[in-house]
From TrEMBL:
Residues 10-343 form the Enoyl reductase (ER) domain. The lineage of its organism: Bacteria, Bacillati, Actinomycetota, Actinomycetes, Kitasatosporales. It comes from Streptomyces coffeae. Keywords: Metal-binding, Zinc. This is Zinc-dependent alcohol dehydrogenase family protein. Gene3D superfamilies: Medium-chain alcohol dehydrogenases, catalytic domain, NAD(P)-binding Rossmann-like Domain. Its cofactor is Zn(2+). CDD domains: FDH_like_ADH2.
């Protein structure tokens, strides 16, 4: 089969690789229909995730059809259309019993496209299939459902729920990329008073307005002042950090009100300064986190009911074998206007299943 292989920082290729086989009785093999590219994949390509070894197939978000299951798999069967979660869960360790699947100590967590071959391929082996895949409702089978593999549960759990967004709150979202836009969409579940989006890119601020932001501000035009003006100098109740840079994190700390919450979602590759000399007296709560994906069934129900505007985030569509071109477009989002990319196309039969 063909897959997108990481060779070293700055170098990937769409190439022939061995077909996947069942390795454990809890595995499933899935034929990929739709995949997408995550900002974390760009972090890997930039060399920011050193535990990804050369030769690894990238990707941790996909839709597909189950073609084979291990003998202990009970929740899905060949022919089922499924959403592959970005997080794999053993189901038995302490963290899995607490639904903190992202912290799995039984061989799961974020492993697809990191420590095991991932989803940017014609076929993928999915470990712990029963807890790591979700059957797709008939009304949620469009390509936009792939966004529920990662960005929507990440934005919802690590941003909106960790930030405890509530009715009437002023919510500032710093970063209007895919995660920030998904945070805006899911924050609306809780009827905040206003949502303010901050970004450098005009196209992303326009997208934030379409998704539901009440006000937008360019990151280079004193967004803290806009927040002050809209809150009579108080500051935002909840600030969601959706970029992952020292500057964006420090911007969040300047926007939050006394007693407010900062929910950090961005993936940080460099140290950020925590100004405790200013924050200690403000009773500010700061949360961080890796998504656990416990909310995926809820979000799938919302998508099936037409209550989740996932399709608005897909700006580009490619065939699966255009993976390298899609990476180039996604990595130059400021120039191309890319938010999320869907890739899919004709798939050849899995050779090992024909024998």
């Amino acid at each position: 089969m063909k897959a997108l292989v990481f060779h070293e920082p700055g170098r990937i290729s769409w190439q022939e690789v061995p077909d996947p086989d069942l390795e454990e009785v809890t595995d499933a093999i899935v034929r990929i229909d739709t995949v997408t590219i995550c900002g974390t994949d760009l972090h890997i390509l930039n060399g920011d995730v050193p535990d990804v070894r050369p030769g690894t197939v990238l990707g941790h978000e996909a839709l597909g059809e189950v073609v084979e299951t291990g003998e202990d798999v009970r929740g899905v069967r060949p022919g089922d259309r499924v959403l592959i979660s970005c997080i794999s869960a053993c189901g038995h360790c302490r963290f899995c019993r607490e639904r903190a699947y992202g912290q799995c100590r039984g061989g799961g967590g974020w492993i697809l496209g990191r420590t095991v071959n991932g989803t940017q391929a014609e076929y993928v082996r999915v470990p712990f299939a029963d807890l790591s895949m979700h059957p797709l409702p008939g009304t949620a089978e469009g390509p936009e459902a792939v966004l529920l593999a990662d960005i929507f549960p990440t934005a919802y759990e690590v941003g909106v729920l960790n930030g405890r967004v509530g009715p009437g709150d002023t919510v500032a979202v710093v970063g209007a990329g895919p995660i920030g836009l998904a945070a805006i969409a899911t924050a609306e579940f809780f009827s905040p008073g206003r949502i303010i989006a901050v970004d450098y890119a005009t196209a992303r601020l326009d997208a934030a307005k379409r998704i539901g932001a009440d006000a937008v501000a360019s990151a280079d035009e004193d967004p803290e002042r806009l927040v002050d003006d809209l809150t009579e100098g108080l500051g935002a109740d909840v600030v969601i950090e959706a970029v992952g840079t020292p500057q964006s994190f420090e911007t969040c700390t300047r926007m939050v009100r006394p007693g407010g919450r900062i929910a950090n979602v961005g993936v940080h590759a460099r140290p950020a300064t925590l100004h405790l000399e200013e924050l200690w007296i403000k009773n500010v709560t700061i949360t961080t986190g890796l998504v656990d994906t416990y909310s995926t069934p809820t979000l799938l129900s919302m998508l099936a009911a037409g209550r989740l505007p996932a399709s608005l985030l897909i700006t580009h569509v490619f065939e699966l074998d255009q993976m390298e071109e899609a990476y180039d477009v996604f990595s130059r989002a400021t120039d191309t206007g890319a938010i999320k990319i869907a890739l899919g196309g004709p798939i050849r039969p899995l050779a090992t299943r024909e024998e």
